[in-house]
């Protein structure tokens, strides 16, 4: 099972890994796996959670039932997933996110990347990103992949409070904080679009596989 | 619906909780729900409720209420001046107080038929961080779903089943996904330390103090996180993911606690200590 591995995570869950980098190949695998799991839930599986190159599988049973599932069912599932056609590289839906680029880390990002603030904005908004997965907080989109010129490690000391709607970046990732939260990413700006609203018919604004385009706007336009 | 209590003070945090909302983690929504399922279940059982009825969870500093009509209350969990594991008759116009607990952190208050509470994504479990409902505020009136004088068909469970939470606990640690990437020295330091619960602990995570554990180094791709995971932050501090914690994260996880371990840890007040023992095959 080249490139695929799995390990137990407590007695009733397994972490399956299928990629160790933020490449387009890993993303396409993640998207096709998430789609397959959502459409054809394997028997005995109670829940799954996606990571970049990993998926967490939780078995509906406890004790010996779970152990048997891990021994007898899981290896066959992985064999089938390896043969899945990776999701097409092109997205079917593009969502525009208007952003006021006045984030508190914009100046520091410019200084550390050696760019002008205007160039940072142009670079961040100048390409389409794909929603790799939702995680961390409800509707939080993990977007990839950031231009190399912008990539910085996460902040040394995480902020205790990041406002809802903050558009931020860390490493090769960029994302949008759906609700107020602690976090260590660099804040570039903010949007008024709500990533998550439990009262909405579609609670989550973005879906895995969507393309996202950040559109710079002035304060009044948000 | 029967208006039963008026909130005079929510204390350190009073919120409706139930068994949570499984099935939404792939959208970033933690399952949430009661921090101590055993205690919440007992509160419901005492009053003859179904096991999944909505209870009121009180945290750390108690709360005060005015009783709007006569009725029964089932109380379990931390001892906040009442006997946990007991059923109480409360009378109209009475003022009832829950004090800072002598032991434990979370107390559960069950009303006949369960509390009437709004549902979000199929559950009444409040998770402020997730944008799912909010804690109770002073002045709010809360209602039971059944006449508060009518206990359920099962009647009351025998009272006096208080767990008696201790301020020092031991918990069994299972290996986490990065267990083998921690050095042998880091692992033995983790087991050798008597960890103290930090005051900066909440429904998202319990932070532990007492030593600094050296992580495996390098950067990790963000990956899924189970409730009960013992993550080691960049500063070497363990944070145990609790019910409202992030579903995905980038810190290495040295170990994992099962539900019994999570319950005991949740009921450990700031300053309480925990030692971990390695799992047995």
Describe this structure in words.
The complex is a heterodimer of chains A (222) and B (281). Chain A has helices at 24-39, 63-82, 106-113, 117-125, and strands at residues 5-8, 13-17, 45-50, 54-59, 94-99, 129-134, 141-144, 159-162, 166-170, 173-176, 181-183, 186-190, 211-216. Chain A is elongated. Chain A is built from four helices and 13 strands. The longest helix of chain A has 20 residues, at 63-82. Chain A is of the alpha+beta class and 222 residues long. Chain B has two domains: 2-144, no CATH class; 168-278, Beta Barrel (Cyclophilin). Chain B has three helices and 18 strands. In chain B, strand 11 (195-197) and strand 12 form a beta hairpin. Chain B is elongated. Chain B starts with a strand and ends with a strand. Chains A and B meet through strand 3 and strand 4 of A and strand 13 and strand 16 of B.
- Shape descriptor of chain B reads elongated
Number of domains of chain B: 2
Q: Percent of residues of chain A in helical segments?
A: 10-25%
Structural class of chain A: alpha+beta
Main pleated sheet of chain B: 7 strands, mixed, barrel
Run of helices and strands of chain B? EEHEEEEEEEEHEEEEEEEHE
Mean pLDDT of chain B: 92
List keywords for this structure.
heterodimer, A: alpha+beta, 4 helices, 13 strands, B: 281 residues, mainly beta, Cyclophilin, 2 domains, seven-stranded mixed β-barrel, 10% helix, 30% strand, elongated
Task: Please specify the SSE layout and strand pairing.
The complex is a heterodimer of chains A (222) and B (281).
Chain A: E1 5-8, E2 13-17, H1 24-39, E3 45-50, E4 54-59, H2 63-82, E5 94-99, H3 106-113, H4 117-125, E6 129-134, E7 141-144, E8 159-162, E9 166-170, E10 173-176, E11 181-183, E12 186-190, E13 211-216
Parallel strand pairs in A: 5-13
Antiparallel strand pairs in A: 1-2, 2-4, 3-4, 6-7, 6-13, 8-11, 9-10, 9-12
Chain B: E1 2-9, E2 14-17, H1 37-46, E3 55-59, E4 63-67, E5 71-77, E6 86-90, E7 95-98, E8 106-110, E9 141-144, E10 168-175, H2 184-192, E11 195-197, E12 205-209, E13 223-224, E14 229-232, E15 238-241, E16 248-249, E17 253-256, H3 259-266, E18 273-278
Parallel strand pairs in B: 10-18
Antiparallel strand pairs in B: 1-4, 1-9, 2-3, 3-8, 4-7, 5-6, 5-8, 10-17, 11-12, 11-18, 12-15, 13-16, 14-15, 14-17
